[in-house]
Amino acid sequence: MVKYALLLALVPSAWLAWTWRAMPQLGIYHDDAIYLVGAKSLAEGNGYRIDSAPGTPLQTKYPPLWPAMLAAVWKAAPAYPANLPWFAMLAWLCLPFAALLSSRLFRDEGFGEREAAGLGAMVALSPAAVIPATLLLSELPFLALLLAALLLARRDRIALAGLAAGLAFLTRTAALPLIAAVPLWLVLERRWRSGARFAAFMAPAVVGWQLWTRAHTGSPGDAMTLFYTSYLGYWKLDAANGGLAEMVWENTAMLLESLGRLIAYDEEGGFLAITIQRVLAAASIAGIVRLFRQGRFRAYSIFAAIYSVQLLLWNYPPSARFVLPLLPLAVAGAWTEFSRLGRSIADTWRRNRGGDRVAATVLASLLAALAVFAIRVNYQTLFGLLPAAYAEQRDIAAQVRPALDWVRAETSVHTGVLSYSDPLVYLETGRRGYSLRIPPGIQKRAARPEIERYFRDLPGLARRHGLQLVVTAPSDYRLDNQEAAAPVYRQTIERTTDVAFRSPGASVCRFRDAGLGAGLR
User: Fold this and answer.
1) Spatial contact of 275 and 366, defined as CB atoms under 8 Å apart
2) For 139-166, what is the mean pLDDT?
3) Per-residue pLDDT averaged across 308-331, rounded?
4) Strands 507-511 and 469-472
5) What per-residue confidence (pLDDT) applies to 480?
6) Maximum distance among all Cα pairs of the chain, rounded to whole angstroms
7) pLDDT of 242
8) Among 215, 250, 410, 497, which one has the highest count of C-beta atoms within 10 angstroms of its own C-beta?
9) What's 58's DSSP letter?
10) In angstroms, rounded to a whole number, what is the distance separating the alpha carbons of residues 336 and 341?
11) Distance from first CA to last CA of the chain, Å, rounded?
12) Where are the beta strands (DSSP E) in 39-170?
């Protein structure tokens, strides 16, 4: 039964991936659709570009490996949207690889065969891992390559480990801490040369991508272009508003909640759920420290420490999505700590002391309650919240479709379109455009005057980027916890545009200073 644990654990994600293989949820995170746009550009021989943006600038924000993998699928099945099920299959296949590599790493780090299989199953069942398995996000291929690098380094295959780490970096630049973490672990093991070899084999990927971005990033742009072309530039734009110490403090609390959410995924964020998630995070961290002192998971732990500092200093809150690379380590840490507590409870019962047995019974009850809570919220997320969210996204797409049909029929291919889901507008209509995203700092403060100042130059931004039309829907700025921005955005559009087309679910408007016939056939 042990060898089938992973297969059984993959059933829920496989069911979800199959049920939603047509991917009406595409674009729910925006960058998942941007990855597909980059894949289309690569597959069609246009280079690694943001083909959905005016002027088709070269992509300098997201590294190319995941879009290149998607491009291979696009090349084989170029008909959109009929090819979406093939992309869905590729995305899901990353989860079995990540779960299997997790199980192998658990085994190499000293867990028994049954424990390793069970912990690998926990990785496969975590909603934090299942969500990207049903979307075109880069987190799961990144996790698989991260685990491959750690596993190869653990087995003293240093050159291959460095190459795998380089591939992880070319999937997500968040892998950068590996170039310090693994060599530091090897130095602690008094293996200086191996540490240098690992860094040498990872470095070409890091240096190559940095050279690419430096060569192809234009002069500092406005908020609209910085969002698409530069992590660092957008961070500077957001950090310029100050509040770095406050941001780190708030990110620390969010990081703890997200670590716990890897084990018990509850997005509602009630007081009880947050408390339990922080308890789970504390237990996980305590277990990781214990494992480190035992000489286990040392490279992974060092990576996790550096990676966590990176998350604390970043302007985006460290949600469970961004903490996903730590999932196997968090599972191992929590299992280690709760197993130790379980053994202590069992020893207390064996000693047969009345008062101690009462305390042991209370602790055992609390452990059971934690397990029941985790199972319940994970089940609700996998079989309730996720299908509901994807169904909502499907309904939104259906409501917006008449507006996109109008844009396709009534405008030329040179029309620039402002929309909240610009990569989907491009994929559906061939019209290029941008979206004006709210920097996380402004989202967090949710101060209406600040949001109004941010949207004030919207007509000027549209003019500078050649955007004549706006596609709007009631769902704009509501799915990303940006409710405070939604009414300001809508009022700005109403004040600066005229309606060209309206349906119950969406509208197409024309900026007044774009010219009466701009963009129309």
Assistant:
1) no
2) 98
3) 94
4) antiparallel
5) 66
6) 87
7) 61
8) 497
9) B
10) 9
11) 65
12) none
Q: Of 11, 8, 20, whose CA–CA distance to 392 is shortest?
A: 20
Length of the chain: 521
Q: What's the pLDDT tens digit per position in 201-220?
A: 999 999 999 999 999 887 66
Query: What is residue 102's DSSP assignment?
Result: H
Domains within the chain, CATH numbers bracketed? 217-351 (no CATH), 390-514 (3.40.50)
pLDDT at residue 126, rounded to an integer: 97
- DSSP one-letter code for 381: I
DSSP line for 236-269: HHHHTT--HHHHHHHHHHHHHHHHHHTTS---S-
C-beta neighbour count of 36 within 10 angstroms: 28
Q: Which pLDDT score, from 0 to 100, does residue 235 have?
A: 85
SS3 408: helix
Joined together, the tokens standing for residue 127 give: 């909603």
pLDDT 10s digits, 421-447:
999 999 999 999 999 888 888 877 777
pLDDT band at 518 (very low <50, low <70, confident <90, very high): very low
Question: What local confidence, expressed as pLDDT, does residue 43 receive?
Answer: 97
CA distance 48 to 53: 13
What's the 3-state SS for 440-463? Answer: HHHHHHCCHHHHHHHHHCHHHHHH
Asked if residue 260 lies in contact with residue 278, where contact means CB atoms within 8 angstroms, the answer is yes
* Exposure b/e, 433-453, CB count within 10 A at least 16 = b: bbbbbbbbbbbbeeeeeebee
If one counts every other C-beta atom within 10 angstroms of the C-beta of residue 258, the result is: 25
pTM for the structure as a whole: 0.94
pLDDT band for 277, please (50, 70, 90 cuts): very high
On whether the CB atoms of residues 185 and 298 are closer than 8 A, the answer is yes
DSSP string, 308-362: HHHHHHSSS---HHHHGGGHHHHHHHHHHHHHHHHHHHHHHHHHT-HHHHHHHHH
Which residue in this structure is represented by tokens 């969210």?
A: 389
Q: Which residue has tokens 């084989």?
A: 76
- Which token pair is 394? 């499907």
Of 181-190, 282-291, 511-520, the poorest mean pLDDT is in 511-520
Asked if 265 and 131 touch (Cβ cutoff 8 Å), the reply is no
Which element (helix H / strand E) includes 491?
helix 485-496
Spatial distance between the Cα atoms of 356 and 134, rounded to a whole number of angstroms? 47
What type of residue sits at position 312? L
Task: Report the alpha-carbon distance of residue 29 to residue 240 in Å, rounded.
Answer: 25
Please say whether the beta carbons of 32 and 137 come within 8 A.
yes
Task: Please check the confidence at residue 62 and state whether its pLDDT lies above 70.
Answer: yes
Place of tokens 């380089």: 166
Q: CA-CA distance, 465 to 218, in Å (whole number)?
A: 14
Residues 249-259: what's their mean pLDDT?
93
Could you tell me whether strands 507-511 and 417-419 are parallel, antiparallel, or unpaired per DSSP bridges?
unpaired
